[in-house]
Structure formats: structure tokens, C-alpha cells
Amino acid sequence: MLFDAHTHLNYAEFSEAERAERAQEIAESDVDFIIDVGDSVASSKQAIKDAADYPWCYAAVGLHPDQAMIVTNADVEAIRELAGAPKVQAIGEIGLDFYYGKDSRDEQVELFRKQIRLANELRMPMMIHTRDADGLTKDILLEEGAFSEERKSWFPLRPDENGEMISDARVQLHCYSGSLELAREYVKLGATFSIGGPLTFKNARKTVEVLKGIPLEYIMSETDAPFLAPEPKRGRANRSPYIEYTVRRMALLKSLDYEEAARITSTNARRFFNIDSDR
């Protein structure tokens, strides 16, 4: 019933026993599917392994902006090769992060552009990380054709909140924390948002505004586990089954039944990542 559209079962600091424990928790929970997201070559390889090991796990491969100062062209080529592995559904997570990485701005931009081009070349969905870089992130996505009519033509149409079929750029704004105004611009461009635990925080004014102001047809749910655990688990290591708290908050804010919010967000994610199988 639930879909964790961005998580890190591949987290490098997990021991194999810890990873197996978390996988068992997912298998026994109401989480039907996860996207295990790469942020380096090594974690992308682990995501592919996890996807091979577990039927409910799918992978994304990519280089996080915090890799920008150490990444090589060989790493980008490795991501290109890994993208062809079974059950790899997207390029990600890629983007810009100027909260910690102000000194690597130029390198981040270059890496971001390369990976958008790779997603376009391979005609794959992309998962975007952006922090303290909202305007530039959008500008680069536009400049590199992430919302072009050609790119949209590669993917099936999707229904809007009125049931009308509209074009889809298959661009996910992961852990979206930007403004409602920007979110509405992204909707018009063909993007989808993935919202996690911060929606449940007491200081989540902007995220709440976005959730209320954007139709749920443009929203997926995520954990970003082991980070950003929702209330009432805040302060602990996040886990995929905790996604229930975020979806319950979505349902409350949207005046929907929990089951309906879970169904809509899961349907959105399955469409976005082209997952037709049943758990």
C-alpha cells in the first residue's frame, strides 16, 4: 500500500546485518516498494545488489553533489554503465547543495549538467537533490532540456487532478522544501514532488503550504532513511516503515482517508518509476 520513493537501504555505514534487519522490516511492513537511491558509484552498486536481493526493491544510480570535488569522468561513465543494470529505474540522486558545498559551486554545476544529459541520453527519470539552490537548480534543468517537449515525448502521459491526461517530464524534486510558488511553476513544467518526514515537523510551514497547495496527483512519499525521521520518531535513525507517519500527515492536510492518500502517492510513484509488478 505504501511506496518509499527515496531511501537508502544502501547506506554505507550499515553493516550487512543491519541492512538485512532493515530489509526484513520492510518485507514485513505495509511498504510495497522502495527506490534505493545511489549517491556515489559504490552506493549505486549496492543499490543494484539490494534490488537483485529483494523483489520490492528498485534502484537509482547517481552522484550526489557532495561528490563534486572528488568525482572523475570515469565515475560518470561508471554511472552510465550501472544505469543499464536490471531494476535501475532512474538517475539520482543528482543536483546542487550549497548549504555545505558553497566552495564547490562550479564543480557541482558541472556534475549536475553531466548527469542531466546522461538521464536525457538514456531517457530515464531523474531524482533531484537541491538545497539552498532552488533558482539555479530550476534554471539548469530548463537549460539542459529536463522539461523539453522532446523529453516529455519519451514518457507516457499521466492524469492530472481532473483526470485529464497531461505530459510528464519524469523529474522528481526529492525532499522538496522550496516555496509553493516555485512548486506551482514546476507542476506546469511537468515535475513531481517527493515529500518526507519534514512535513511532520512543527516548523514545516513551507512544506505544509506546498502539500496543501499542490494536488496530490503530483506528490510521492519518501523517507530518505536513515535520515529525517518523522514525528514521533524524530531524533532516531529513519526507517522505510516510518513513511506511514508522513502519509498520515498528508491525508490529514488533504482531508483524505489515510488509505486514499497511500493509494494516490503509491500510484504516482509506480507510474513515475515504471513499476508494474505486484508485491
From TrEMBL:
MF terms in GO: hydrolase activity, acting on ester bonds; metal ion binding
Segments traversing the membrane: none
Keyword Ribosomal protein annotated: no
Gene Ontology cellular-component annotations: cytosol
Alphabetized UniProt keyword annotations: Hydrolase, Metal-binding
Entry binding sites for a divalent metal cation 2: 129, 174
Residues reported to bind a divalent metal cation 1: 6, 8, 93, 224
The keyword Plastid is annotated on this UniProt entry: no
Domain of life: Bacteria
Name of this protein: TatD family hydrolase
Natural source organism: Mogibacterium timidum
